[in-house]
TrEMBL record:
<feature type="binding site">
    <location>
        <position position="110"/>
    </location>
    <ligand>
        <name>GTP</name>
    </ligand>
</feature>
<dbReference type="InterPro" id="IPR053254">
    <property type="entry name" value="Arf-like_GTPase"/>
</dbReference>
<keyword id="KW-0812">Transmembrane</keyword>
<feature type="binding site">
    <location>
        <begin position="164"/>
        <end position="167"/>
    </location>
    <ligand>
        <name>GTP</name>
    </ligand>
</feature>
<keyword id="KW-0342">GTP-binding</keyword>
<keyword id="KW-0472">Membrane</keyword>
<feature type="binding site">
    <location>
        <position position="88"/>
    </location>
    <ligand>
        <name>Mg(2+)</name>
    </ligand>
</feature>
<dbReference type="GO" id="GO:0046872">
    <property type="term" value="F:metal ion binding"/>
</dbReference>
<keyword id="KW-0547">Nucleotide-binding</keyword>
<keyword id="KW-0479">Metal-binding</keyword>
<dbReference type="GO" id="GO:0005525">
    <property type="term" value="F:GTP binding"/>
</dbReference>
<dbReference type="Pfam" id="PF00025">
    <property type="entry name" value="Arf"/>
</dbReference>
<keyword id="KW-1133">Transmembrane helix</keyword>
<protein>
    <submittedName>
        <fullName>ADP-ribosylation factor-like 10</fullName>
    </submittedName>
</protein>
<dbReference type="InterPro" id="IPR027417">
    <property type="entry name" value="P-loop_NTPase"/>
</dbReference>
<feature type="transmembrane region" description="Helical">
    <location>
        <begin position="6"/>
        <end position="30"/>
    </location>
</feature>
<dbReference type="InterPro" id="IPR006689">
    <property type="entry name" value="Small_GTPase_ARF/SAR"/>
</dbReference>
Length: 223
């Protein structure tokens, strides 16, 4: 009886040891010895890069014009629908095929309760497009605070700030926006662009001096 118990303990120990060895070997094989969200995001990012995909994260306060921008970029979106955007409660996603790679645009809603999730997506992103409502003067300090919070999380990530709604009479100029967002204080090492933008009557995004193609070209150079 005692011998049987010894044999069963020895067998259990052997199975446990074998299982552990297999687990360690598999983890070593996949180079994911310790799981962490950061490592997981890096792996996803690398895998997407291999498949020629680049992610553009589109953030900004609620009502800034993120969804309108995405709709403006979508080639097939009917013009009438483009101005009819509802607040984004979660995510919004479009994919554009470029000559060298696919650009995946991911918008996360700008409502206060959603902003806390923004920084979770920075690690698998290749470029951040930060949309600001240039006519929402009262909330420029908040837009600035949220932008700088993101910049602190990813010090190297290229950023394009879109000063949107330039068609509105009370919109601040690009120079005023530069100051209001304290873009002077951003490190010279970071690639940072500030563009004035507005939706055209057809619902397509227009950036000052630049057409839509040039905006996409800029993104393609940054990713
Ligand atoms: N006049 C003007 N209105 C704009 C412009 N861009 C967007 N809008 C309007 O602004 C409102 C809000 O736009 P959305 O694209 O839904 O804003 P959002 O940033 O996606 O907002 P959330 O999803 O709530 O975070 C809509 O009524 C748009 O039609 C613009 O350049 N000029
Ligand atoms: Mg939206």
């Amino acid at each position: 009886m005692v011998l049987l118990r010894h044999i069963s303990i020895a067998l259990t120990a052997a199975v446990a040891a074998l299982g552990s060895a297999l687990f360690i070997a598999l983890n070593y094989f996949y180079k994911r010895r310790i799981w962490s969200p950061q490592a997981e995001y890096c792996t996803i990012k690398e895998e997407e890069e291999e498949r020629g995909k680049r992610q553009v994260l589109v953030l900004g306060l609620d009502g800034a014009g993120k969804s309108s921008m995405l709709q403006g970029l979508s080639p097939g979106a009917p013009a009438a629908k483009r101005r009819d955007c509802r607040p984004t409660r979660g995510f919004n996603f479009i994919s554009l095929d470029g000559p060298a790679c696919q650009l995946d645009f991911l918008e996360i809603g700008g409502r206060e309760d959603l902003r806390r999730y923004w920084s979770d997506y920075l690690r698998r992103t290749h470029v951040l497009v930060y949309v600001v409502d240039s006519s929402d003067r009262n909330r420029l300090p908040l837009a600035k605070a949220e932008l700088h919070r993101l910049l602190r999380v990813e010090p190297q990530l290229p950023v394009v700030v879109l000063g949107n709604k330039q068609d509105k009479p009370n919109a601040v100029t690009v120079a005023e926006l530069h100051e209001a967002l304290s873009l002077d204080s951003v490190s010279d090492d970071r690639k940072l662009f500030l563009l004035a933008a507005q939706l055209g009557a057809d619902g397509a995004l227009r950036t000052a001096c630049w057409g839509l193609d040039a905006f996409q070209d800029l993104l393609l150079q940054l990713v």
